[in-house]
Amino acid sequence: MTTGRNSLGGTLLAVLLASTTPIALVAAPSGAAAQAATLDFAIAPGSLDQVLARFGETTGLAVFYDADLTAGASSAGVSGNLSSQAALDRLLAGTDFSYRFSQNGAVTIERTQDAAASDGPLRLGAVTVTARRTEERLQDVPASVVVLSRDELERSGFDDTRDVMQATPNVNFVGGGTPVTAEPVIRGFGNQLGIGATSPSVGVFVDGVIANPTTSLFGVGQSTLDLERVETVLGPQNNNFGRGTVGGAINFVTRKPTGEFELEVGGELGSRPDGRGTLILNQPLNEDGSTAARLAFSGSASDGFVDIAGDGPDQIGNEDYNLRFSLRSRPVEGLTLDGSFSFDRSQFDALGFATLESIGDGNPVFPGSSPGESTSDRLMIRGDAAYELDAGRLVFRINYAESDLEGTTDTDFTTLDVIEQTNDTSNRSIGSEIRYEGNEFDLPRGLGGLALNLGTSIAFVDLEVEGVTDPGQAAFDLLTGGTAADDGSTIRGETSQEVFSLGVFTEGRWRPIPRLELAAGVRFNLDDVSLTTETVSSGLSAITVPSVPKESGSNVFTAFTPNASIKYDWTEDLSTYFSYTTGFRAGGFSPITGRNFTTLDEENAKQFEIGFRGNFLDDRLSLSASGFLLKVDDFQSESSIDVNGLPVFVDGNNDAESIGAELLVVGRPIDDLTLSAGYGFLDAEFADGAVGPDGRDLEGSDLTLSPKHSVRLTADYVFPVNQLSSDGFLRAEYYAQTNFAANDDPDSPRLDGFDVLNLRAGLRGDRFEFGVFVENVFDESYATGLSGPAALGDLTNTTGRLGTAGPPRRFGVMAKWIF
């Protein structure tokens, strides 16, 4: 193997290597022969330099590249019986590099933009994912996976998890007035519980570490700051991601430090008014770039778009700050150390709640006297060590997270001084994982190749919730007919939850013949759950909500969650698959202020999925489709019932199921135009025998926030602007979904569907980007879900209920500079 460098010393080194290794240039095969011959590859993921070295050793080809440019880059490796060209396609997938063969059989590795400038059509390129917790081509994954690349996130102007969910077929969210309160729903299943949930239904991960170990209050609202990509894996993912993934998993993959200096400064101004600023700094810490640090920071502030009833001012929106500091070091060959520290703060006065009637009129109004004030702080610390072995890769991880949410809310939703509630919620979690990712090895007697993955994980989660309800004078007037003054009494509820979680998992992937992969695995899950609750009421408040002595309960939930798949590669660019996956969500106890808590059974899910994925027309067209049947036994859901004119929320279990399909198409009909389309069909409903807590028949009722049809269309057109040595760009995005059920009451009216069009245009050069944008071009008024009743006792009609208002039209400018 030879390595080209820009420096004279590097050139001399390349000549010496070429003359002393057995891979001499004169012995290399011809270009045609090198590309046509197939070889057995077993190259583990690692740094791009290491992977290219192994490629050269396997093929006998001379490989030229600039080591200064490849420093810090990584590759997913490659395995299987492939041609050299196919192997290069896979090991360079997801990187910023491409390749070309010379006539004498040598390979030159180039920056992608350099390759794009040469003759030949522009291609869509391969995509690298970690949907099965190892880096591999998206083409090789037997599951429905939607990937939003760094370029896609930046071109769309996505800010947080809500944008990601809206861009993915059959993915929605509960709540969402703020990023903190957006609960993901995938294929009809999401967490509908409050603090009674011991794990989420859809896990939100950052670099494979779960960020929402309990409920939507923690970790869901991840920023898209400085990401490599976002992967959404649809359907149960217990074997790959662990607890909290009955519906699926959303993994935010951050950009890692590299061996090159980088400084990026950006800003955005919007019409709300709102503003956002970002700073990204990458700095090598030693001469060879083997140790580097990366800093990413963003700050934003936005006015609200929901009025307060009466003479109050507009709701003040939110302020968000995101900070992430990361380190990467390769102290010795084969060892990679990663560490990161992140802190996020969200301060918001507006939850985005408004009466549905006012949302429909295009002027959303919060009916209360005050929107309340809340602050959410989130901290995550992660450390990874990955060591490349001859037989595979060994990974050790440890992580710590804590979250705190404090706030006050006008919970009577009227202009009267009836009830104000103060909540203080904190969450702490610590976890670790050891995982071995084996390379494929040959079995005896010609039985093909086998790769094994195995590992174990452990986690401790602690949740503390304190809520104080303070009735005002208006409450005492209603209670006593105006004969009693506010005596300062309160209703205090305290809840403490602890979870110990253990997982042991393994998976094998067998290739009896080069084109066929059979995979199977199983995970043992154990969740030890304990809960303690107490309600203390004083004075006249005890008349409506009496005190409840301290209660506690504990239980251990265990399950084995197997998975299996079969995938056949018809060609290097076309594969079909069938998979069976299962999921598990621990049960627990549901605390209700002023009432004895109830016990919840665990959820058990099983999914059958069939699909295909392929690239066609010289990689100008990418097409993937999947169909699924997902059944969840004892789905945990929350229902509201009317008790003496007051809403009481009760948790329970019922069977549910969903059937549906996803279709994703990306095409490049001409070099400058990229078109994409995503479509989701979903029929999610309660199964036979489902009954609500008040005896209502739920059988056949649609699950919450599960529209039958959802669509996303995008178009990107890029054209040269030679006078400014840059490219102009135009981008259009269109989202639409049909009407949907906002709760599990079959008699409650459905919320209307909606469609939104976003436009962006600007200039992009090597060192700068400038653009203008319009979001929600036609100023569509819509609600994304329901909240509590807008008036006490009003539980069913939509005009009297609160909804989460979708954002109105917004326009602005953005700019970015790279130094």
Distance between the termini: 34 Å
- What is the structural class? mainly beta
Helical amount:
10-25%
Q: How much strand? A: over 45%
Unreliably modeled segments: 1-35, 113-122, 790-799
**Helical region count?**
12
Largest sheet geometry: 22 strands, antiparallel, barrel
Report the strand count: 47
Radius of gyration: 28 Å
The coarse silhouette is globular
State mean pLDDT (0 to 100 scale). Answer: 82
Question: In terms of topology, how is this protein built?
Answer:
Elements: H1 8-20, H2 31-36, E1 38-43, E2 46-47, H3 48-59, E3 63-64, H4 67-70, E4 74-75, E5 78-83, H5 84-91, E6 97-101, E7 107-111, H6 112-116, E8 128-129, E9 136-137, E10 145-149, H7 150-156, H8 161-166, E11 171-175, E12 182-186, E13 189-190, E14 202-206, E15 209-210, E16 227-234, H9 238-241, E17 248-254, E18 262-270, E19 274-284, E20 291-302, E21 307-308, E22 318-329, E23 335-348, E24 353-355, H10 356-360, E25 365-366, E26 373-388, E27 392-409, E28 419-438, E29 441-442, E30 449-471, H11 473-480, E31 491-513, E32 516-537, H12 541-544, E33 548-571, E34 574-585, E35 588-592, E36 595-600, E37 603-616, E38 621-643, E39 646-670, E40 673-686, E41 709-721, E42 726-737, E43 754-764, E44 768-775, E45 783-789, E46 801-805, E47 810-818
Parallel strand pairs: 3-7, 14-17, 21-25
Antiparallel strand pairs: 1-5, 2-4, 6-7, 8-9, 10-16, 11-12, 12-13, 14-15, 16-17, 18-19, 18-47, 19-20, 20-22, 22-23, 23-26, 24-46, 26-27, 27-28, 28-30, 29-30, 30-31, 31-32, 32-33, 33-34, 34-37, 35-36, 37-38, 38-39, 39-40, 40-41, 41-42, 42-43, 43-44, 44-47, 45-46
